[in-house]
Amino acid sequence: MRNFELYVPTKMIFGKGEIKKLSNEVPKDKKVLLLYGGGSIKKNGIYDQVKTALKEHTVIEFSGIEANPEFTTLLKALEVIKNENIGYMLAVGGGSVIDGTKFLSSAALYEGNDPWDILANRIRTVKGLPFGTVLTLPATGSEMNSGAVVSRSETNEKMVMGGPGLFPEFSICDPTVVHSIPKRQLANGIADAYTHVLEQYMTYPADAYLQDRFSEGILQTLIEIAPSVIKDPSDYKAASNFMWCCTMALNGYIQKGVPTDWSVHMIAHELTAFYGIDHARTLAVILPSAYTKKFEHKKEKLAQYAERIFNITEGTIEEKAKEAIKRTEGFYQSLGIDTRLRDYTDDYEGFSKKVAKNLTDHGMTALGEHQDITPEVAAEIVEMSY
Amino acid sequence: MRNFELYVPTKMIFGKGEIKKLSNEVPKDKKVLLLYGGGSIKKNGIYDQVKTALKEHTVIEFSGIEANPEFTTLLKALEVIKNENIGYMLAVGGGSVIDGTKFLSSAALYEGNDPWDILANRIRTVKGLPFGTVLTLPATGSEMNSGAVVSRSETNEKMVMGGPGLFPEFSICDPTVVHSIPKRQLANGIADAYTHVLEQYMTYPADAYLQDRFSEGILQTLIEIAPSVIKDPSDYKAASNFMWCCTMALNGYIQKGVPTDWSVHMIAHELTAFYGIDHARTLAVILPSAYTKKFEHKKEKLAQYAERIFNITEGTIEEKAKEAIKRTEGFYQSLGIDTRLRDYTDDYEGFSKKVAKNLTDHGMTALGEHQDITPEVAAEIVEMSY
Fold first, then answer.
1. Nearest by CB to B244, which of A210, A220, A240?
2. Is the ipTM of this structure higher than 0.90?
3. Which residues does UniProt call coiled coil (chains A, B) (predicted)?
4. Beta-sheet strand order (sheet of A131-135)
5. Residue B92, min C-alpha distance to chain A (Å)
6. In this complex, do B1 and A240 lie within 8 Å of one another by their Cβ atoms?
7. N or C end of chain A: which has fewer CB within 10 A?
8. Which class is domain B11-176?
């Protein structure tokens, strides 16, 4: 097991009917900026619950944060924060709204000239403007971690940021929101969380037995609840486990003490940046090829995963490992998610070169747990996924 | 899954060679009270490492906190805190030293007349004197939670306390300390952590699939590493997983969203209070009888545990469940821990009545996940464990 530091100070408030607790969690002596997306929270009743809970607070609203939150949109919110002297933010939404809020948390206290530098220069945020969240879409785990992803469509860029100052002070997760989420987004959420676990698990044996068991526990639970979540999102048993899996998949606990990969995410981000394909679906496109390309490095953990998750006990390590990749692709497909780039676009010729160039431009020239995925190797992986 | 709140703000610093980080974690502008036990830290080199790391701090020492920390001993430390105007505490030890420090954290800011009231009246500590820990004995999980147990031998009492103000600010866990721990205490630590998991897991199915998987992951890992830890405590792979299991067994993550039992602990505490039997060993004595007595309520989870942990796939639920109790008793015995009261004392006749009286006196008249373990039922459980 590797040495690690683990610090997750977000207060998690989990369960049905808990949104009312906002009234005590959000400070009353600060002007609050309520941030949300395209208005689905007005249809599913969350908006009303939030406004009721905050009826004694001074609240200003900023809506319209899109999926893959846009830098230019966030700059408008930043202006509101500065003009209105906002002292606290409340993100009500999924990973995009929360990630956008994290960017704002950092940018509000950033002393440089151009807030884009936070992303471009990977500036670690040690102190941000405080905020809480109400999660409306389980998937990214952003509600209990300190990372964020922000896009800039004008330049086809999708960049990551983070730092210990970016944990939400609290997050309220009410699994009853799941019932109002479209099937497409439920499938995305499950695939996203599943892939988050794999990025932290599917490397090489590192004697972190407990972390492996926890990762496997999340994978097993996601496989177990996926059909119920898709079939009947009002099934509270399935919805609550789905929601908690998504949080635990990326709140640090399975990541600490182990090598991590994340090359699938870094490569897949380019598919969203160029084609606008849903984040989770880009992961499902890239992952099978990435694991096939890095088979020799990953085969031992792939075989362990085959045994423990899919009960594949027969065959050599290689046979088990290959079957594990197939089963993983099959799991994505069972969610209704296509796993080839050609399923999403006809215009993929030459795309691999663009990916290689973008990765080079962003300094991501050594991805993966062995830092041996160069832009050229990434391009091969992309070509394998056409 | 039940609604829950989860807040674990302790910064965990885990790994070999990390004690040096004390110099940055302990504030330099406060007078520090260094608390430890009987001096084993002077033999294993931890004391020297701590003192070296704190060479720029103002440090006063208080040693002699015993196993099952004594109220009267702690009162002496409290006097030091008040006389010396201590602003920060550093606990260097196992669960007893850390628990004692938690009591002091609460007592230092307590405004009542008699600090015993914190225990007797179960006063929840919202704000305590800040402290950090260096863990030298993996077992209780006290390094990353906000609970403590304090004893008063003059009255044969062992009482629990807690509150959100009692989380260590940080804990440093260096698994190399394991190599210097006597085998008896290693066995105790494994048994203690294992039982902590069972207290939070072995109740009834509550649709908390992920929590179940995490609990099972800790149990599986403890079973896997136990022989290596006992045989060769310098085996870092085993020691590090052992240490992390102990923390994760009681830092809140497997407890949230599920019913919990804790009756085994509450009854077993009386065995320590009366006979001075090691805490972990009292758990091993009481647990098999408690599960046998509450078999009907626990059989479904016992059967799940039989299947997932011991691969018992044949038989009825009842048969699997019975076998699970046997295997659990066998696991304790495999650690060299006796599982009957008569193995520890000849003087057990009539003891069950004393337990019933003590539980009554302390208001613990409805234990267990169904709150149906009255002092009379507890007495029966004790008699079954003679």
1. A210
2. yes
3. none
4. A59-62, A32-35, A88-93, A131-135, A170-173, A4-14, B4-14, B170-173, B131-135, B88-93, B32-35, B59-62
5. 19
6. yes
7. C
8. alpha beta
